[in-house]
Amino acid sequence: MKKKILDKQELGKIIEEISENLFSYFNGKFEEICVIGIKNRGDIIAKRIIEKLEKKGKFKILFGAIDITLYRDDLSSIGPKPLVGTTEIDFQIDGKTVLLVDDVLFTGRTIRAAIDEIIDFGRPKRIFLLVLIDRGGRELPICPDFVGKRIDCEEGENVAVCIDEIDGEEGVYILNNRKDL
After folding, report:
1. What's the CA gap between 72 and 111, in Å, rounded?
2. Which single residue of 6, 49, 56, 109 could bond 10 by disulfide (Cβ 3.0 to 4.6 Å)?
3. Could you give the domains of the chain?
């Protein structure tokens, strides 16, 4: 069963609010900040946020995208030939403040893998975590700095963020089974 909890307009409003909060938090100063999105939806959400920030502040923000497949702690259980995407970081991150963006925060394992990968590219000054949805259920001590929306889920439920660029629709759903989408 699939239950829609956010529609396209609500999703857009949350991204707008996050962008406003970021602009205020960083006082409109993004010279030493780079935004890195976790593929396959965190990178698109990051681009949308960057677009709003750049429009508001009339500046350019460094953007990168990472695929954390090879950094997963369950890589051996995925199968013999995991599908590995590309990582695109074409700038120095040493000394920079990184804003790491993902769609859903659950156990914290994806974020741990992303931080490991980022550190392989250099030593950032600081890493902030921004998630569109925090659904609770942490297995690791990972806490987001910026959250679009917190959602309570029952054990066994999944949260799916759908975006036009990948799914052909926009919204956030609670699923009883990943196959429900």
Report:
1. 10
2. 6
3. 8-24+31-71+83-154 (3.40.50.2020)
Residue 175: strand pairing partners: 2, 158
Which residue, among 143, 118, 117, has the nearest Cα to 130 in the 3D structure?
143
Q: What is the pTM of this model?
A: 0.92
Own/partner contacts of 10-17, CB < 8 Å, gap of 24 or more, are 11/132, 11/161, 11/170, 11/171, 11/172, 12/170, 14/132, 14/148, 14/149, 15/45, 15/48, 15/49, 15/52, 15/132, 15/148, 16/52, 17/148
φ, ψ at 103 (rounded to 5°):
-80, -50
DSSP 26: T
Strand-by-strand arrangement of the 97-105 sheet? 62-66, 33-38, 97-105, 126-134, 146-150
Tell me the per-residue pLDDT of 42-56, one tens digit each, with 9 for 90 and over. 999 999 999 999 998
